[in-house]
C-alpha cells in the first residue's frame, strides 16, 4: 500500500502473531530487514527499513510499536489520522479461513509442545464474522483477531540481485526523501 498519490512511498503489508518476541524487539528497535530468494527467477531481494506493528488494542499494554521520525511514510499516515486498526481488520478479513486459524492457537508461536498430535485439537479454520454459525466459531474469531497483529514495513533501501540473467546483475535502490536513487553494484 502507499499514501494516496505517493507511489514512491510504498509500505509492505503483512502480519504476525502479537505474542511473538518480534513485537517486543520492534518496540526497542524499529529497523528491520526482509530477505527472500525467488527460485523460479533466481532473484534475491533484501529490503531494509522500518517496521510498525499494530496489535489488538487490548492485547498490548503499550499499544502499537512507535513510529520513528525517519519513517516518512508511516509518520505521514499517522499524522493524517490513518486508521491503522481498520487496516488491521481489513487485512485479517482478507486472510483465508486456514490462515486465520493460526492466530487461534492457545499458546504463543515458538512455545514448546510435546507432540504434533496436540495440534489436532486446535481449530483448523476460522470463518469471517458474517459466516460464523456457532458460539465456538464466534469465540475462535475473537481469539484469533485478538492475537493478529498488522505489520507494516516501510522500505528505505532495496538490494536486488538477479542470478537468472547473464551477466548477473545487482542493483541497489536507496530512498532519499521522495526519490529513489538507483545504483548498479557488483553482484
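^ C-alpha cells above, recovered residues below v
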Amino acid at each position: 500500500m502507499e499514501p494516496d498519490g505517493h507511489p514512491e512511498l510504498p509500505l509492505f503489508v503483512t502480519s504476525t502473531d502479537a505474542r511473538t518476541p518480534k513485537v517486543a524487539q520492534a518496540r526497542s528497535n524499529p529497523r528491520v530487514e526482509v530477505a527472500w530468494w525467488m527460485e523460479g527467477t533466481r532473484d534475491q531481494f533484501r529490503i531494509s527499513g522500518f517496521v510498525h506493528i499494530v496489535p489488538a488494542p487490548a492485547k498490548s499494554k503499550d499499544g502499537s510499536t512507535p513510529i520513528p521520525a525517519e519513517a516518512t511514510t508511516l509518520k505521514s499516515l499517522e499524522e493524517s489520522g490513518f486508521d491503522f486498526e481498520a487496516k488491521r481488520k481489513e487485512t485479517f478479513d482478507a486472510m483465508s479461513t486456514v490462515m486465520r486459524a493460526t492466530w487461534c492457537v492457545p499458546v504463543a508461536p515458538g512455545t514448546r509442545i510435546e507432540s504434533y498430535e496436540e495440534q489436532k485439537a486446535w481449530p483448523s479454520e476460522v470463518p469471517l464474522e458474517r459466516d460464523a454459525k456457532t458460539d465456538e466459531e464466534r469465540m475462535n474469531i475473537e481469539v484469533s483477531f485478538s492475537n493478529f497483529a498488522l505489520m507494516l514495513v516501510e522500505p528505505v533501501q532495496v538490494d536486488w540481485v538477479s542470478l537468472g540473467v547473464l551477466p548477473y546483475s545487482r542493483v541497489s535502490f536507496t530512498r532519499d526523501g521522495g526519490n529513489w536513487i538507483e545504483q548498479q553494484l557488483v553482484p
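The mean pLDDT is 94.
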